Amino acid sequence: MSVGQAFLALSANDRELSLGSGSHWAIGREKDNAFVFDDSAMSRRHALIQQMQDKFFFIDLGSRNGSLVNGRRVTVPLELRDGDSVTCGKTQFTFRNPSAEPGTAPVQERITDATIPLYTPNWTTVLVVDIRGFTPLTREIGEAILAQTIGTWFREAGKIVKRHGSSGDKYIGDAVMATWTHQTRTPKSVEMQRVLQALWEIHVVTNHLQEQFSLPVPVRIGAGINTGLCMVGNTGGQDTPEFSPLGDSVNAAFRLESATRKTELDIALGRDTFERLGDTPEIQACFEKRLVELKGYENAVDVWFTSFAKLGSALRSRKRESSRASSSRPIAQRPR
Q1: Alpha-carbon gap, residue 46 to 88, rounded angstroms
Q2: Angle, CA of 116, 121 and 123, to the nearest 5°
Q3: What is the four-CA torsion angle of 111, 21, 72, 66, rounded to 10 degrees?
Q4: Which of 60, 87, 130, 274 is paired with 257 by a 20 to 30 Å CA distance?
Q5: Whole-number Å distance between alpha carbons of 50 and 190
Q6: Contact 67, 73 (CB under 8 A)
Q7: Cβ contacts of 299 within 8 Å, gap of 6 or more
Q8: Residues 6 or more apart in contact with residue 287 via CB below 8 angstroms
Q9: Residue 84: beta bridge partners?
Q10: Which alpha helices (DSSP H) does the chain contain, by range?
Q11: What is the C-alpha to C-alpha distance for residues 177 and 175, in angstroms, rounded to an integer?
């Protein structure tokens, strides 16, 4: 194992599982996990360790029996510290990050041996989805149900954005950030529709959580979507690349999501995202423009808002329109 490389030390058999290649490692019973365990108390896809820059986060993915870090139930993504004790099912291991300990090589020496990530500008759409009223929800339900609820939401949201072409997703607190990287500065409307369809499906999954886990109150989400030029670079490893966006366009997506709380609407779009929907008037028509002050910006900006009810109706209308257009096209005759 490389000097200074993070790893998991298994308590049962003194094995060490390296966290040196890649940027995220799934834990569970299924064979497609990075770390597979023959543990009947562990879920098929139990948890995830995700690296963001020089930090490591532990995320329970809605496992049936839950996960513990230092004896406490994990309910939201939790930053791991060197020496933390982690329990998944009946399996226990210790998170080790030797680079954080005294006596390792100086920072400058470690940096010179590493490949410096090359960041390039890309036109990117960023979707930020955040759970509303998360703090009151934690007071209403126990930690076990909370962990399963939030973990299930993370897992299903991740599946949805990947199915609709997302180039990457991250779990941040009680929020999910997903990104779509475009080939040109003027993404086609169909690309924006994929983002909106993904958001709608996340909303549907969220609505089912109350019934699925017998919650006393429904779970609600808000979302911000922004399209713009981002600096994108590979922060993952050679085998599992992870292209992460950085810059003002990313920050704006988070500010847009925050703006939905003040308007009591569900979704906020930045100008470039809205304008890319120009050839889908039925979708554009469900949004209303408002002049909004976003935190961190000197001047108020135009933002387009809508509700999930209006978005769902617009997407269904668009689907019907596309079906009619497709069925009205003449069928090409085979040459005889």
Answers
A1: 7
A2: 140
A3: 160
A4: 60
A5: 31
A6: yes
A7: none
A8: 269, 274, 304, 305, 306
A9: none
A10: 107-112, 134-140, 143-163, 189-213, 248-263, 271-275, 281-284, 308-328
A11: 7
Read off the DSSP letter of residue 116: P
Give the global pTM.
0.75
Cβ proximity of 60 and 67 under 8 Å: yes
Mean pLDDT estimate for the chain: 85
Task: Name the band, by pLDDT with cuts 50, 70 and 90, for residue 333.
Answer: low
**b/e code 97-132 from CB counts within 10 Å (16+ = b):** beeeeeeeeeeeeeeeeeeeeebeebbbbbbbbbbb
Helix (H), strand (E) counts: the chain? 8, 19
C-alpha 160: how far from chain center: 10
Tell me the pLDDT tens digit for each residue of 65-97. 999 999 989 888 899 999 999 999 999 999 999
Q: What are the φ/ψ torsions at residue 187 (nearest 5 degrees)? A: -60, 150
Q: Who's near 69: CB < 8 A, 6+ residues apart?
A: 58, 78, 80, 84, 85, 86, 87
Instruction: Please give the DSSP secondary-structure letter assigned to residue 80.
Output: -
Three-class DSSP category at 112: helix
State the CB neighbour count (10 A cutoff) for residue 70: 13
Q: Which amino acid is at 8?
A: L
Q: Is the pLDDT of residue 284 over 70?
A: yes
End-to-end CA distance of the chain, in Å? 67
Question: 92: which 2 tokens?
Answer: 């226990």
pLDDT, tens digit (0-9, with 9 covering 90-100), for 205-231 = 999 999 999 999 899 999 999 999 887
Structure tokens at 297: 């910006």
CA separation for the pair 109, 331 (Å, rounded): 67
